[in-house]
Write a structure and sequence with these properties.
By secondary structure, the chain is an alpha+beta fold. The chain contains 8 helices and 27 strands. The strands form 8 sheets. Strands 7-8-9-5-4-1-15 form a 7-stranded mixed beta sheet, with no helix packed on it. A 5-stranded mixed beta sheet has the order 6-2-3-12-11, with no helix packed on it. Strands 20-19-27-26-25 form a 5-stranded antiparallel beta sheet, with helices on both faces. A hairpin with a 5-residue loop joins β19 and β20. The longest helix is centred in the last third of the chain and has 19 residues.
Length: 423
């Protein structure tokens, strides 16, 4: 599983700065960069592949050179304008190499001159995870738990009573009895879980847009894509179904940020195809999904995928949301952006309908007529949090599928709201 180490360096940024110069000494393995005003760098170590990402908030790139190719374990350095107020430097390692986060030394000789000393890269066959901490405390890597479900170690205590009730609810919808449902719930406070056919493969419908969003933001984190870059709506990506871009003429232009917002919040199929095309197609995305450990979440068809050839499982959706919530897939800024976008999904007829007042949910829905689904992170007013994913097949447009998702959501919310946050 990808992870990151976030180091927040303490200095104060007075006003917008410009990067005057930067240099990487491949022999000494040291990066130096200078700005004309004080900056507050933020550094992250991200896996799959390993890259060191250095953000300079409140900084413009100016005329500094953009890239440098390297030999050996250090492949390249890219520098670009991440957004209107942030310059990003990315040091990319060759596949199979990692850096020891405890050996990364960051020093500010002044508020405008910084050095980043890197250790010798080492070969690795085991992925490490790490959590954000503040300098100058010691920095260490945290190994992935051997018994995990999403980002939280799974408790030996299962939600047996709740699972019995969810199963019993199914019998109350006669039209669904010849179909299937996958349900996964994970209590983020104590790790107890419910897994009802969670490993069964279902059509993903528009929920496939959730892993696409995360993969896209990973490319933003590595500097491959800018949120401010312009995407052109070419004729080949324009499709029907959900969304509003289909009604605009070919050649219409949108920022990457606007495009991913439409992909998620109004489930725009044309916007999704623009993102898939920008990232390089199905093979690139499926490889990324496998790197995360998702074996059954597969993108096979452009949206809308009305035949249901794109697939996923309730458990893999829950795991993906767990790693997103734990900030082990994205940088802090991209993670916050993903959560915000997912909180503004317009479809409120599925899991949302079963939540109590003032609860919040970051989620993505899907509907292709014979498959209805929703997956999200729920936060109760008390602060208690849980993950839930549901995938339900039915006859075409059978309202019973919607009713069942609402009923399960309501049951889970009420049950977990009565449980303590730790046990």
């Amino acid at each position: 599983m990808p992870g990151f180490l976030s180091l927040f360096l303490l200095s104060s940024a007075a006003r917008a700065a410009t990067v005057e110069d930067w240099h990487f000494d491949n022999v000494q393995q040291q990066l130096d960069f200078t700005t004309d005003e004080a900056v507050q760098p933020m550094i992250q170590l991200i896996a799959n592949p390993t890259r060191l990402v250095i953000d300079l908030p409140g900084t413009h790139l100016g005329s500094a050179r953009r890239n440098q190719s390297l030999d050996g374990a250090m492949q390249s350095i890219r520098i670009g304008q991440f957004d209107g107020q942030t310059t990003r430097i990315v040091i990319v390692l060759a596949p199979g190499y990692q850096l020891d986060p405890e050996q990364i030394k960051v020093r500010g000789t002044s508020a405008t001159h910084w050095t980043v000393q890197l250790p010798n890269p080492t070969m690795t066959t085991e992925m490490k995870l790490s959590s954000p901490i503040m300098l100058p405390q010691p920095v260490g890597a945290i190994a992935l738990p051997t018994n995990h479900f999403g980002a939280v170690p799974q408790s030996s205590m299962q939600l047996d009573w709740l699972q019995q009730q969810v199963t019993a609810l199914w019998s109350k919808y006669p039209s669904l009895r010849s179909y299937d449902a996958g349900v996964c719930v994970l209590d983020l406070d104590n790790g107890s879980s419910l897994n009802l056919h969670g490993d069964k493969v279902f059509p993903a419908a528009s929920i496939i847009k959730l892993p696409i969003l995360i993969a896209f933001l990973q490319d933003v984190d590595t500097g491959k894509i800018s949120l401010n870059e312009t995407l052109v709506m070419t004729r080949d990506v324009i499709v029907g179904g959900s969304g509003e871009l289909q009604d605009l003429p070919p050649g219409s232009k949108f920022s990457a940020l606007e495009t991913i917002n439409k992909m998620i919040t109004i489930s725009d199929n044309t916007a999704t195809n623009m993102i898939i095309k920008r990232m390089g197609g199905f093979t690139v995305l499926n490889q990324r999904f496998r790197q995360w450990g998702l074996q059954k979440t597969v993108l096979r068809h452009w949206l809308p995928d009305l035949r249901g050839t794109n697939t996923t499982t309730a458990k893999e959706l829950t795991e993906l949301l767990g790693w997103l919530d734990a900030k082990r897939l994205l940088s802090p800024s991209s993670q916050a952006l993903a959560v915000d976008i997912l909180q503004h999904v317009k479809n409120r007829k599925l899991l949302v309908a079963g939540l109590g007042p003032n609860a919040t949910i970051s989620h993505k829905t899907g509907d292709i007529g014979f498959l209805l689904g929703d997956a999200g992170l729920v936060t109760m007013p008390s602060g208690k949090r849980y993950l839930i994913a549901m995938l339900v097949t039915s006859a075409q447009d059978d309202p019973a599928a919607r009713d069942y998702i609402q009923a399960v959501s309501r049951l889970v919310y009420r049950y977990l709201s009565q449980r303590p946050t730790s046990e």
